[in-house]
Design a protein that fits this description.
Strand content of chain B: under 5%
Number of helices of chain B: 11
Largest sheet of chain B: none
Structural class of chain A: alpha/beta
Shape of chain B: elongated
Helix content of chain B: over 70%
Distance between the termini of chain A: 43 Å
Strand content of chain A: 15-25%
Distance between the termini of chain B: 28 Å
Radius of gyration of chain B: 18 Å
Shape of chain A: elongated
Helix content of chain A: 25-40%
Oligomer: heterodimer
Radius of gyration of chain A: 23 Å
Chain lengths: 329, 257
């Protein structure tokens, strides 16, 4: 059974404003599905409909096997929701908030306490749990929001832009938690405007623009649709520019800028070693060699003719590291 | 059963929120206390006016007015807090949970009622410290607390209706001066018989007058079931109007998202 089935879902706010213009999608149990698109594309409106916070004006959607309109309470019991900008009461303490969430989901006092403590421990907030949420950093708030969304062990987790505005370390900590949850069997539906987030986390990506899904697939297949990887080389000073004889054995020559020599290759990273060996054998010195692969932004450009906002200056991927460090309590 | 636990949890949050945010607590306690002190000090001689009810002191007369002023402000504060929840998205967290949607509003009203009880106890303590004698004794005290609590609940429905309709804390806060219009056009701060027209006529039909009189009655005279029933009818009317408006506003908000 699919965790989420959406058929021609629409939401109009007026005759002129059609925020979601007919979305079709299906998310399998245990999948991480990323909804990628710029601000105003319809991501949040779609999530609000799938989480029963907003009634669709057209189409149907089923979440965890229940219709979002006619079986809304059953949907709410099956899902966890962490909305954009972590809507937390700054006057409550972390532990008060998560225990209240447990009560809202019908857990008895003892079970609510047990799960709350376990989740606070899991997201590294045990020490800070008695502090008011207003004193938490952005990363701590997101982790608390995530923990609250998990208190009733939902089958499907909705994360609306879970890392927007976070620093790379906090972002990585959230990513790790999402992957861990997914490994434990939770289906995750996340919206993001970060290419890397979709690329790193998602099994499948839906690219949404102007209320419609314009492309859908695995990150690899989407990128493969828009072009092949290319090698960009800068030769050492004094080397002749006519080394294409060597390079063209590995792929088609492409026009290059700023003195770069560019060839399109079939196999991505696997093409680097043979090229380097061939250049070395031909005694051609290379100053730099870079493998440039298509990004999801290229997919977005291909499908919509526009770049994703901020795609060029997106925060770099956090360095791989060990366990996330708890914020100073 | 769980709905009761949800309402209690949300009511508890509402009370904690008020005590942790001085700008919500101050209007409920500090303003009415100051006004009580100023009025009692400045207009104490009014008790000698012909037609003034037979009371030991002006404080005895004003105590009920201060309590109902506090509950009106508690209703306004409940509306502000609900609107803040809507503005910051906290209401979405509650709406995404498997609870009856009305419990979100009822939880907030439960908090307002608890604050009503608190303010009743606060002003009774002030009154007793400064020599007010409650004519009806302990049953009178309990009656005053009960009516004040119910009035906070009723006024809370009006605050909630404005909050749900507007979704804006500033709009609800903007209703603050109305509290004083309602009070000055009632018997809260001065006996109805001594008001000038048209205030006198308005006060005759103002539900706040009935509620204040029901709270004041046990202080100044023997128990009058007529005053009590009128007070409860005033509370029921305010509560009914507020509940209908709140239900409509909630329904509209859920429909439009």
């Amino acid at each position: 059974m699919s965790a989420i089935e959406v058929d021609n879902l629409q939401r109009a706010f007026s005759e002129e404003v059609l925020a979601v213009a007919g979305v079709d999608l299906e998310v399998a149990e245990g999948e991480i599905y990323a909804f990628l698109g710029p601000n105003g594309a319809g991501k949040t409106t779609t999530v609000r409909m799938l989480t029963t916070l907003l009634r669709p004006t057209g189409g149907t959607a089923r979440v965890a096997g229940h219709d979002v309109v006619t079986e809304a309470p059953a949907v709410r019991s099956a899902i966890g929701v962490a909305l954009q900008e972590a809507a937390l009461d700054p006057l409550m303490t972390g532990v008060e908030l998560i225990r209240m969430q447990a009560t809202l989901h019908g857990l008895d006092r003892a079970e609510g306490r047990r799960r709350s403590n376990a989740l606070l421990e899991r997201v590294g907030l045990t020490q800070a749990s008695k502090r008011r949420v207003g004193t938490y950093s952005g990363g701590m708030k997101r982790r608390l929001d995530l923990a609250s969304a998990l208190v009733h062990e939902p089958r499907v987790l909705f994360l609306d832009e879970p890392t927007t505005g976070l620093d790379p370390v906090s972002r990585k900590s959230i990513w790790e938690e999402v992957v861990k949850l997914n490994d434990e069997g939770t289906t995750v539906f996340l919206t993001t405007q970060y290419l890397e987030e979709a690329d790193q986390l998602a099994d499948r990506v839906g690219i949404i623009s102007a209320g419609l899904i314009v492309a859908e697939g695995t990150p690899t297949s989407l990128k493969a649709e828009v072009g092949k990887p290319r090698l960009e080389l800068v030769l050492a000073e004094g080397e002749p520019d006519d080394c294409f004889e060597v390079l063209e054995r590995f792929g088609q020559r492409l026009p290059g800028k700023d003195g770069k020599l560019v060839i399109e290759v079939e196999s991505g990273a696997a093409a680097i070693a043979p090229v380097v060996i061939a250049l070395d054998e031909a005694e051609i010195a290379v100053e730099s060699l870079e493998l440039v692969e298509p990004t999801l932004d290229d997919v977005f450009v291909e499908k919509t003719g526009q770049h994703l906002e901020g795609a060029a200056d997106e925060a770099p991927t956090p360095e791989p590291a060990g366990e996330p460090q708890p914020d100073p309590a | 059963m769980n709905t009761v636990r949800v309402v209690v949890a949300l009511g508890r949050r509402s009370v904690l929120q008020t005590f942790r945010r001085p700008q919500l607590l101050a209007p409920l306690i500090v303003f009415p206390t100051l006004l009580l002190a100023i009025q009692t000090g400045g207009a104490g001689a009014a008790v000698n006016l012909p037609g003034f009810p037979p009371v030991d002191s002006f404080l005895s007369f004003m105590l009920a007015g201060a309590m109902i002023q506090s509950t009106l402000l508690a209703g306004n504060a409940a509306g502000i807090a609900l609107a803040v929840d809507i503005e910051m998205g906290f209401t979405d967290r509650l709406l995404a949970a498997p609870i009856p949607r009305w419990s979100i509003v009822v939880g907030r009203l439960a908090g307002a009622a608890a604050l009503g009880t608190f303010s009743a106890v606060w002003f009774l303590a002030i009154g007793l410290i400064f020599g007010v004698e409650i004519a009806e004794g302990i049953p009178g005290v309990l009656l005053m607390i009960a009516v004040t609590t119910l009035s906070a609940l009723a006024f809370g429905t009006l605050g909630a209706a404005i909050a749900l309709r507007s979704g804006s804390a500033s709009v609800v806060q903007g209703m603050f001066p109305l509290v004083f219009v309602i009070l000055f056009l009632s018997s809260a701060f001065f006996p109805q018989e001594l008001l000038q027209e048209p205030a006198k006529t308005i006060a005759q039909f103002n539900p706040a007058s009935f509620i204040v009189d029901a709270v004041r009655d046990p202080v100044i005279s023997a128990f009058s079931s007529e005053d009590l029933w009128k007070g409860l009818a005033g509370i029921a009317l305010v509560g009914f109007v507020g509940s209908v408006l709140s239900a409509g506003a909630l329904k509209r908000r859920l429909r439009t998202g």
